Amino acid sequence: MAEEKLSFQAEVSKLLDLVVHSLYSNKEIFLRELISNASDACDKLRYAALTQPDLLSGGGGDFRILVTPDKTARTLTVADNGIGMNREDLIDNLGTIARSGTAAFLDQITGEAKGDMNLIGQFGVGFYSAFMVAEKVEVISRKAGEDQGWRWTSDGKGEFTLAEDADAQRGATLILHLREGEDEFLDGHRLRNIVKTYSDHIALPVVLVEDGKEEAVNSASALWTRAKSEITPEQYKEFYHHVAHAFDEPWATLHYKAEGAIEYTGLLFIPSQKPFDIFHPDRKQHLKLYVKRVFITDTCDELLPPYLRFVRGIVDSQDLPLNISREMLQHNPLLAKIRTGLVKRILSELKKKAEDADGDYATFWSTFGAVLKEGLYEDFERKSEILDLCRFATTVSDEPISLATYVSRMKEGQEAIYTISGDDIEALKKSPQLEGFIAKGIEVLLLTDPIDEFWPNAITAYQEKPLRAVTQGAADLSAIKGAEGAEETRPEPAAGDAMASLIAAVKLALGEQVKDVRSSDRLIDSPVCLVADEGDVGLHLERLLRQHQQANQRAPRILEINPRHPLIRRLAEEAKADGAADRLADTAWLLFDQARIVEGEVLPDPAAFARRLSKMLEKVG
User: Is 368 annotated as a binding residue?
Assistant: First the structure.
């Protein structure tokens, strides 16, 4: 087959350009990425060979990674005898970034974080870091179990070539033709230092080949099998970088061995930065499963529930059968016990951090709180534990607080925990539905994550205090004692008969557009607001459902009117006169449209709103 020239996927071309021209800080990490990829390739073949031993022919079962500098040719070679790649794999893995959110990644590394190597790796793009130091990269590979080898070549400028290679060995050999000025990566001492620093934890030998001599330069023992006292924080950090394909610092590290009825080792990490795919619809977790140090899979969704998918690391079981298949994992009772143990450990660690004043729990919560809250809706057994870990912004507190703190400072006579949900905290603070609560000093939870529309229905109460949305149902705040003298500063409400006449006129004008019109106890400065009836879909949830085409019709809402507002008091007096219903029709629609605008809704008939507003201004003029 003749040499074939192909183009990179558009996003790969853009990424390569950025790698070559922008991401130059800490260039030595390219070697870590290539060694990590080689280690993963060997892990995959070791697993596949459990059921297909013939795959090990033509390359042996003693897995290792060779790093070979050639000062004369100015090349650095990284080779493994792992699973290898065929033609399709080379195109899919090296010519395409087949991961979600790549555009977001590219946007971020071209913005304020330009030059931040902490970002590369989170999309499986570590291979491309080779172009930081290489003007040309060759990949010679033969997939285990296949006879045909391939050579992939590129200078990273938009195209790559593919050709058959009859001499290719099983695995992958990467030849980096170094750029001018990168000769440090041909020096044996420098390479030893890089491998020792970044890849000492790799569980197979990394061998430096120099002047025909071979030297293993890493300890080649699985880090999780060592005693914690023998492992430095730096080694933990580098193992996290390897297993998570991340470059940030781990926020927390859990290393323990479970013994007794079931035996397994867990080395788990909670990142300090949010992975880009954390809110991908698949909600996959990223723990690697080993059995007796043999890699089994990195896509075992049975190890952790989706709400803990931010955890990275490995689990090594001594009790699972070595030849277990991915299909059998789904129904294995031992795995269910491991899952229970992992969840218990992780939640316990989070609780400890939350209670530690110096534990920086606020950083974790701002990063992963929205994910952890999914457990309130999904994990009935542990929802109380998870709820104690949750933190909430409020109308009173600048820092997110726990529900226990909220309950401890509830007002005299307050029987419920009040919430309001929306897209933005600052916008929520200006909601008219909050005015009466703020006037009395009643604290309200400000909920801005999509999951906040669902978990309150699963919790219903905390310490026997029901959760109640301030945008749903009636708000009778009379029993709650507010600030001293607050009531005396409010103007008198419109007379009862006058308000009844106004409400009747507004109902007549709006008809089925509203479910009801009533006087409000929650409004202070605003003349009107919309609320959902008890049991109806909330205002914010309905908006979210419409955005996802899950709802087409707007449910009729209740229009509440502030009887103390100067405009409403004047309109109430007008409503007592004969023929007021016709005269107030346009005003009723203007009040209704005003309430919809405040809720962030798009008016269905802006032209009619403009006409009514113009007529009203003409009367005033």
Answer: no
Q: What are the two backbone dihedrals, phi and then psi, of residue 426, each rounded to the nearest 5 degrees?
A: -65, -40
Spell out where 363-436 has E strands: 393-394, 417-421
pLDDT of residue 116: 44
Give the DSSP letter of residue 552.
Answer: -
List where CATH 1.20.120.790 sits in the chain: 491-620
pLDDT in tens, 185-233: 999 999 999 998 888 878 899 999 998 899 999 987 889 998 999 999 9
Q: Where are the beta strands (DSSP E) in 185-245?
A: 206-210, 213-216
Do the annotations mark residue 413 as ligand-binding?
Answer: no
Choose which CATH entry (3.10.129.10, 3.30.565.10, 2.60.120.560, 3.40.1280.10) describes domain 4-221.
3.30.565.10
Burial 233-246 (b: 16+ CB within 10 A, else e): eebbbbbbbbbbbb
What whole-number distance in Å separates Cα of residue 3 and Cα of residue 187? 34
CATH 3.40.50.11260 domain position(s) in the chain:
392-489
101 annotated ligand-binding residue: yes
Helix segments in 435-495, DSSP class H: 435-439, 455-459
Burial of 334 (0-12, 13-18, 19+ CB in 10 A): middle
Helix (H) or strand (E) holding 573: helix 566-575
C-alpha separations of 560 from 437, 490, 514, 582 in Å: 15, 18, 10, 20
100 is in an annotated binding site: yes
- The annotation status of 332 as a binding-site residue, yes or no, is no
Does 410 count as an annotated binding residue? Answer: no
Contacts of 208-217 with CB under 8 Å at 24 or more apart are: 208/67, 208/68, 209/66, 209/67, 209/68, 210/68, 210/69, 214/66, 217/67, 217/191, 217/192
Residue 366 marked ligand-binding:
no
Distance CA 60, CA 69 (A): 24
The reply, when asked if residue 125 is annotated as ligand binding, is yes
pLDDT number for residue 458? 87
* CATH 3.30.230.80, the chain: domain bounds: 224-361
Q: Dihedral (C-alpha) 594, 598, 602, 608: value to the nearest 10 degrees?
A: 10
Q: Rounded to two decimals, what is the model's pTM?
A: 0.74
332 by Cβ neighbours in 10 Å (0-12 / 13-18 / 19+) ranks as middle
Give the strand pairing for 417-421 and 393-394.
unpaired
Secondary structure of residue 620 in the 3-state scheme? helix
CB 469 within 8 A of CB 543: no
pLDDT confidence band for 125 (50 / 70 / 90): low
Any known ligand binding at 273? no
- All CATH 3.30.565.10 domain ranges of the chain, comma separated, are 4-221
* Cα-based distances in Å from 592 to 56, 335, 516, 528, 587: 74, 57, 12, 8, 9
CATH 1.20.120.790 assigned to domain 491-620? The reply is yes
Range 392-489 classified under CATH 3.40.50.11260: yes
The reply, when asked if residue 127 is annotated as ligand binding, is yes
User: What are 557's strand-pairing partners?
Assistant: 514
- The domain 224-361 is placed in CATH, from the list 3.30.530.20, 3.40.190.10, 3.30.230.80, 3.40.50.150, at 3.30.230.80
Cα–Cα distance for residue pair 598/529, rounded to 1 Å: 8
pLDDT 10s digits, 489-511: 678 888 889 999 999 999 999 99
